[in-house]
Amino acid sequence: MLATLIRLVGDFELAEEGAQDAFEVALARWPTIGVPSNPRAWLVNTGRHKAIDRLRRRIALRGKLKVIHADAQIGGEPEPVRADIEDDQLRLIFTCCHPALSLEKRVALTLRVVCGLPTPAIARIFLVAEETMAQRLLRAKVKIREAGISYEVPGREQLAERLASVLAVAYLVFTEGYAPSVGEATTRPELCAEAIRLVRLLDQLLPGEPEVSGLLGLMLLNAARLGGRSDARGELLLLEEQDRSRWDHDMIAEGTALVERALSHPSRIGPYGVQAAIAALHANAISFAETDWPQIAGLYQVLLRLQ
């Protein structure tokens, strides 16, 4: 819904405000009138009209002509139910991860707008005050507007570079959950889950991209071991000390299948696919002693050549 509203009104702040207004109206009306047959379309249309109302109020002192012009830009007939919801989501991900933004802003904006984490939670991740994070997010949105960053999926000639930026953001979010760089927590499972959700979405929207499959496989294979990474006191355990029965074997099976898919394109194997293959060898080993160390060493040589 938010991704579609951003496309319709062309402004992050206005779209977010319209979405909040629409949810407020729904909370008030739906208990009485019932849930509409297409809740998303109802929310999008309501949010769009609320955004128009907000824009009218903002520019009321600038003259009626600008109001009419703005109406022509985002007003008019109600938004029809569209089939390209996925396209809107993909545009939003690539916009939040645009290389013109600093890596920190890309991570924060993705967590806020794509993953839906509240600003206080993101502030805790970055160990800054909520007001500081709110200002950073606002500056990132202003940068997108003022720099004229297009709300679009890049063309094929730009896709590799831009996709690498998106995957790097997701990788950093997962890594911060798997091995936090700050704070006392040994793991942050909620961040791992958000990163996995983001890459699952990418895998659905860009089927057949080997590095997307590789990164999703890598995340699942590592997340599968979270249950055995610490003891009863919360202390991290070495791999050889972990109880492998506490690993999530369904997740390991899914991750392994994704690795096989990623490696089925030999000419397009990338760093995430190789790291995922290493993780698969660890996760599928019956014991630490029976791990295929020669193959792992060989894969690290491949990774060294790639990076």
What tags apply to this protein structure?
307 residues, mainly alpha
Q: What amount of the residues lies in strands?
A: under 5%
Mean pLDDT: 86
The total count of strands amounts to 0
Total helical segments:
14
Which blocks of ≥5 consecutive residues have pLDDT under 50? 75-83
Q: How far apart are the first and last residues' alpha carbons, in Å?
A: 38 Å
Helix content: 55-70%
Q: Structural class of the secondary structure composition? A: mainly alpha
| Gyration radius, rounded | 22 Å
Q: What overall geometry do the principal axes of the alpha carbons give?
A: globular
Order of helices and strands: HHHHHHHHHHHHHH
Main β-sheet: number of strands, strand sense, barrel status? none
Oligomer: single chain
Topology:
Layout: H1 2-9, H2 12-33, H3 39-59, H4 64-74, H5 85-96, H6 103-114, H7 119-126, H8 130-146, H9 156-178, H10 189-205, H11 210-223, H12 249-262, H13 271-284, H14 293-306
Helix pairs in contact: 1-2, 1-3, 1-5, 2-3, 3-4, 5-6, 6-8, 6-9, 7-8, 9-10, 9-11, 10-11, 11-12, 11-13, 12-13, 13-14
Give an overview of the whole structure:
The protein has helices at residues 2-9, 12-33, 39-59, 64-74, 85-96, 103-114, 119-126, 130-146, 156-178, 189-205, 210-223, 249-262, 271-284, 293-306. It is 67% helix and 0% strand. The chain is globular, with a radius of gyration of 22 Å. It has 307 residues and is mainly α.
